[in-house]
Specification:
By secondary structure, the chain is α/β, with parallel strands linked by helices. It has 15 helices and ten strands. Keywords: Hydrolase, Signal.
Length: 340
């Protein structure tokens, strides 16, 4: 009887894995796919879901995450996902912090690419940031970034040579932001209102927005949920549903939300600090089919006898751990800078 139960469950899990779509991961600033945190994160989720997982590198990783503009990063990513045969029927995107700008670009800007089913965002600067991720005062990357910061953030030169400049949104400098910022106003449909971009974004099956409660890198942290400062003020942070992006539905966020497809989730850690149990609860369900209604993989595992389940957990590294999915970065405030 026990043998038949286990045999039936094995067949069930094999069936589930057969129909699980692959996923791709885009890492954050000052990181690369080969770093231990990102590679382990990708491997765990692939093992748990039974889905092929790919971390897609843009250029050389760390350097280009700072200095390659997002229009070029998205073009490279678009070409790469088209070349991966396993993605042709559709795939999921997992964005880590700044990597969500590449993910958003793929959803909205990648013509004739494979369809994106779920966008799972960890600490994504979707509504912009009012400070720049920074890495201290030593090292070539930091010296160059610091030099660029002293120039006009919305000038053509800085926009073309400092990647985070593409999503910096100074609340008291909105006119220059809309005029000079080359990436975020485009994907957020703040200027021209491209109906194609909106249609593509609204076609997502699930938009999973994960905010980190102790996040001090994203300013404000609510940008992970599309919340942001009102134009012209630093005094408060508007919830996503009170922003013009939502109420006027610039990109289809309201459409998705009213259809029950937006998941506003939060975890307890610092920026990109997540436990394996939080990964299983907040990410894994969206890497298996019918995620919006059932959590088939995680629920089916509960049917295993405890001795078998514990052994399987050990094999797959499911024991409680805290993953730090970023290199050491600090935040430097822009309020003290003068921009022209």
């Amino acid at each position: 009887m026990n043998f038949m139960l286990i045999f039936t469950l094995i067949l069930t899990l094999q069936s589930i894995n057969t129909y699980s779509l692959p996923f791709v991961v885009f890492h954050g600033i000052s990181d690369k796919c080969s770093n231990e945190g990102v590679s382990y994160f990708t491997e765990l989720l692939s093992n748990w879901s039974g889905s092929p997982g790919y971390c897609i590198e843009i250029g050389n990783g760390e350097w280009d995450s700072w200095f390659m503009p997002f229009t070029k990063q998205v073009d490279i990513a678009c070409d790469k996902v088209k070349e991966i045969d396993e993605l042709s029927e559709g795939y999921h995107i997992i964005g880590l912090s700044q990597g969500n700008m590449v993910g958003r670009g793929l959803v909205e800007l990648c013509s004739d690419g494979p369809p994106v089913k779920n966008l799972i965002s960890l600490a994504g600067p979707h509504a912009g940031i009012a400070s720049v991720p920074f890495c201290g005062q030593s090292g070539l990357l930091c010296i160059l970034a610091d030099s660029l910061l002293k120039l006009a953030i919305y000038s053509n030169f800085v926009q073309e040579h400092l990647a985070p400049a593409g999503y910096i949104k100074i609340p008291t400098d909105i006119a220059d932001y809309r005029k000079g910022c080359k990436f975020l106003p485009v994907v957020n449909n703040e200027i021209h209102g491209n109906s194609t971009f909106k249609k593509r974004f609204a076609s997502l099956e699930n938009l999973v927005l994960i905010m980190f409660e102790k996040d001090q890198i994203l300013v404000p942290k609510q940008t992970s949920w599309f919340g942001y400062y009102p134009d012209g003020s630093w005094s408060t942070v508007l919830p996503a549903k009170e922003t013009k992006l939502y109420t006027e539905d610039w990109i289809g966020l309201k459409i998705l939300d009213e259809a029950g497809k937006v998941k506003f989730l939060n975890v307890s850690g610092n920026h990109l600090e997540i436990s394996t149990s939080e990964m299983k609860k907040n990410i894994l369900p969206y890497l298996v089919d019918n995620a919006s209604t059932t959590v088939t993989t995680s629920r089916s595992s509960d049917l295993w006898p405890s001795s078998v389940r514990n052994f399987n957990d050990k094999l797959n590294g499911v024991g409680e751990e805290i993953l730090e999915l970023h290199t050491h970065v600090e935040s430097v405030s822009l309020r003290s800078w003068t921009f022209w």
